[in-house]
Write a structure and sequence with these properties.
Blueprint: H1 9-30, H2 35-57, E1 62-65, E2 79-87, H3 89-93, E3 100-107, E4 110-118, E5 123-126, E6 141-145, H4 151-160, E7 163-167, H5 170-178, E8 184-187, H6 193-205, E9 209-211, E10 230-233, H7 235-246
Parallel strand pairs: 1-2, 6-7, 6-8
Antiparallel strand pairs: 2-3, 3-4, 4-5, 8-10, 9-10
């Protein structure tokens, strides 16, 4: 890895996310683990690498990771990396492709740089070179959890006449909107900051609407990292969807 300070934050996020993804693919293909054991090993392996890489490249920054014990010291730090080493652990353990690696940087609580690696495809999207989302299809498509779709999201889809598209990780769902494979990602089933931070950074860079379901902005590096709801959609759909979620 380059010496500290010689690489942009976006380039670093992308390189760390992609390398973690490569490690996860190697582990997945090794045959040493399967199912839940593979997911557990993947979480630990990717987290260990990401923590080491960020400590080397940005030693003065704080890190909030799903796989690390949280420290209140990060609250006094302007620059905080928020990472999910393996988003979609179940999908990864099952050998599916809808899992992701999230690496994002927040400054004063705002996501300013980030990358979402989708190693199973393979594809990485980041804030530095994110293409505009393609033109939507004739029928709206709404992403929902493949195992536990939230009732609120299903109700909104019904009101919009949208087709439900089941998918695994939050990162995979958000990037499906960025890539034009879907039009709406509405989540109300509970999440944490690491689930959405990198996907939100990339979605904003792509020009999509991003907010809480009440229309308020997504804010990060808070004392309580629980951030339960999220809306990512094409800007022209936001007002209509928020009217339904607020009602």
């Amino acid at each position: 890895m380059s010496a500290p300070g010689t690489e942009s934050d976006t380039a670093l996020a992308r390189r760390v996310a992609e390398t973690a993804g490569e490690l996860l693919l190697t582990l997945q293909r090794s045959g040493l683990f399967a199912g839940k054991a593979l997911g557990k090993a993947g979480d630990r392996t990717a987290n260990a690498f990401i923590m080491e890489a960020l400590a080397h490249a940005r030693p003065d920054d704080a890190v909030l990771s799903e796989e690390e014990k949280d420290s209140a010291a990060r609250l006094a730090t302007r620059r905080v990396w928020i990472v999910d080493p393996l988003d979609g652990t179940r999908e990864y353990g099952e050998g599916r492709v809808d899992w992701a690696v999230h690496v994002a940087l927040t400054v004063d609580g705002a996501p300013v740089a980030g990358a979402v690696a989708l190693p199973g495809i393979p594809l990485t999207l980041c804030t530095g070179r994110c293409p505009p989302a393609p033109v939507p299809a004739d029928t709206l498509r709404m992403l929902v959890s493949r195992t536990r779709p939230a009732a609120e999201a299903v109700a909104v889809a019904d009101a919009l006449g949208a087709q439900l598209v089941p998918m695994g990780s939050a990162g995979a769902k958000a990037m499906a909107v960025v890539r034009g494979e879907a039009d709406i990602y509405l989540h109300t089933g509970g999440q944490f900051e690491w689930d959405s931070c990198a996907p939100v950074a990339v979605a904003i860079a792509a020009g999509l609407h991003v907010s809480r379901v009440d229309g308020s902005p997504m804010a990060y590096n808070r004392a309580d990292p629980y951030l339960p709801d999220l809306l990512i959609c094409r800007p022209e759909l936001a007002e209509r969807i928020l009217g339904l979620t607020r009602g």
